[in-house]
Amino acid sequence: MTRLFLIAGEASGDLLGGALLAGLHELTGELELEGVGGAAMAAEGLASRFPMEELSVMGIAEVLPRLPNLLCRISETADAVVAARPDALVTIDSPDFTLRVARKAKARLPGLRVIHYVAPSVWAWRPGRARKMAQVVDHVLALLPFEPPYMIEAGMTCDFVGHPAATLPQASPEEVAALRAELAIGEGQPVLALLPGSRRGEVTRLAPVFAEVARRLRAAEPELAVIVPAARGVVGLLDTGLKADDAGWPHVMDPRGFDSDAWEARKRAAFATADVALAASGTVSLELAAAGTPMVIGYDANRLTAWLAKRLVRIDTATLVNLVTGTRAVPEFLFEDCTPERIRPAVEALLLDPAAAAVQAAAGAEAMRLLGRGGEPPGLRAARSVLAHLA
Asked: Which residues pair with 4 in a beta bridge?
C-alpha cells in the first residue's frame, strides 16, 4: 500500500494530478489517498478536504482580500499531512499555497518526502526560488525539457516527464465540420477565436480589448466569424464584455450544459476551426500549438502585478511555444502593449499571409515534439518518477 497526500490548487494542477494518479494505478497496487484536488483527481479516488476552487487566485491585488482564508487553509492542510504521515507529500503547482503547506508539515515531520510537480520558472524570474524550494522539496517533476538542470543545481533531484499538451487528442474533420455547421460558418469563411482567459480578473481586463480587435477586423473583413470557447465560470463576464454585433459575432460558446469531456472535445473543435486565435498568455498557447492553430498572445494585469512583473522577469517572451523552441514565432503584446491598435496588425497578418501562419504552425509542431509528443504519456512518466523516488 502506497500512501500519498496530494495537493492541487487550480484546474491545470488537478488535471496533472489526475493523470499522475491514473499512472500510479496502472503501475502499482492499492493507493491510499488524501489531499486537495478537483474533478480529475476525484475520478481517480481522491476525496478533496475542501473545494479546490478556494485556492484558484492569481495576482497580488486579487490574493490580498482572501488572505485570511488562505492562511487558515494552509495550517489546516499541514495539520492533515502530519496526521496522515504519508509515504510522500505530492504538491502540484500553486507554490504559494502548496509549498507553504509542505514547509509547515516538514518542520513537524522532518523525514517527510516532498515531491513537487511543475518546476518553478526560475529561468524566467526569481532564480533564488529553487534553492529556497530545495529546503523543503526532495524531488521535482518538470514539464519543460530545459528545467532539470536548474533544479539539480539547487540540490533537488528532477525528471522531465513531458507536458500534457503534447498528448492532447485532436478534433477530427467530422467534428470540425459539425461545429462549423452548428455555428453557421460557411465553407472558406475565415474564423478568429478569442480566448481572453479563465480567471475573472483576466477576462475583465482582456475581453474588451480582444473584442475591439475583432470589431476592427470585421470592419475590414465582414465575413470574419469570431468564436469564443468560454472557460467555465466566466461566461457571464464574456456576455457583457464582448457585445456581439448585428451578425452575432463574437459568438460565445457556452460550456454550461456539457460535461467536462464533451466540452473539451468541443473546445478542440473550435481551436481546429479557427484560422487564427487571439489568446491570453498561459498554457492555452500550447493547446493551440497542439491543434496547429496560429496565434497572437495578449495579456494585461493589475497595475501593481504588472509593475512587479516587468521588474522581476528575466526573459523577453512569456509564450511557452517561443521558450521551448528558442524562437519568437508567436507575437505577443503584454501589459501596456496589450491594446487593439498594436494587436490588430499581428492578427491580420496571420489571417492574410499563409506563409506566416505556416511558419508558426511549424514552430508549434516542434514544440510538441520537444514536449514529448509520440512518447509515453506524461502522467505515466510522472508516476514512474514518483515510484522510483520512493524506492
From this structure: 33, 88
pLDDT per position as a tens digit, 275-291: 999 999 988 999 999 99
Other Cβ atoms closer than 10 A to 182: 11
Helix (H, G, I), strand (E, B) or coil at 116: strand
Task: Kindly indicate the confidence band of residue 61, based on its pLDDT and cuts at 50, 70 and 90.
Answer: very low
Going from the C-alpha of 16 to that of each of 40, 145, 346, the distances in angstroms are 8, 17, 33
Cα–Cα distances in Å, from 213 out to 56, 210, 347, 361? 29, 5, 9, 22
> What is the full DSSP assignment across 231-295?
PTT-HHHHHHHH---TT--SEEE--TTS-HHHHHHHHHHHHHH-SEEEEESSTHHHHHHHHT--E
Q: Has domain 2-162+374-390 been given CATH number 1.10.3210.10?
A: no
Give mean pLDDT, residues 177-197.
95
Q: Which CATH architecture has domain 173-370?
A: 3-Layer(aba) Sandwich (3.40)
How far CA 62 is from CA of 93, 125, 301, 304, in Å, comes to 18, 20, 10, 11
* Angstrom distance (rounded) from CA 228 to CA 220: 20
Task: Please report, for the chain, the start and end positions of each structural domain, with discontinuous segments joined by +.
Answer: 2-162+374-390, 173-370
Q: Which residue has the cell 502585478?
A: 305
